[in-house]
Amino acid sequence: MSVLFVTGTDTGVGKTLATGLLARFLLSRGERVLTMKLVQTGCDGVPEDLELHRRLMGTGPAPEDASGLACPYVLKFPASPHLAARLEGIEIAPARLAAAARRLEARCDRLLVEGAGGLCVPLTDEVTTLDFVAGQGWPVAVVAPARLGSLNHILLTLARLAERAVAVRGLVYNLHPAERPEIAGETRRYLRAHFPAVPLVDLPAFSVESPPAVDFGAFFE
Length: 221
Hints:
With 221 residues, the protein is α/β, with parallel strands linked by helices. It has one domain (3-220): Rossmann fold. Helices cover 38% and strands 19% of the residues. Helix 1 packs parallel to helix 2.
């Protein structure tokens, strides 16, 4: 498994933090790691999510960031990729995304690809993120926030992945921040009871200036 796709149960749930810390973990094992953002919306210039990846990795900018290879589409309007692209008069080409990922994959031991928004967000009018990921045959890590309603979103996301026979390598439970300890505890208990084969790793609250060493080893076994 040289590519891992990082998706979330929604937008703003911590995918970028998780991707950066996953990369940091792999770097600590001596692996050559690159990260990619499929599409960045609400941005003009170098993708802010890639910048956060690099800060958490402690590596500084990569040449692939400035060249656009690590994020083939940077769109100004903060919306789903298909809408943001339409407002700029373009259409996202899934083949271009796939080609960029293959080029990056050839340059590293492990490529982490962060999606935009949730799993079923449209890239075009015909292709969702799930369609694209399933077509690439990539396994997935799912990021979810510790808040009311997230258990339902996790279950829906896992159900859609199972329908498309997409492998789930792990769940990242984002406690940055956790709303209520009762909710966080019950969500963990339920997931471990009903999905015992899926590793569950907590993402603790932390400062970007002092990233924690999170053990994601079970995701890569």
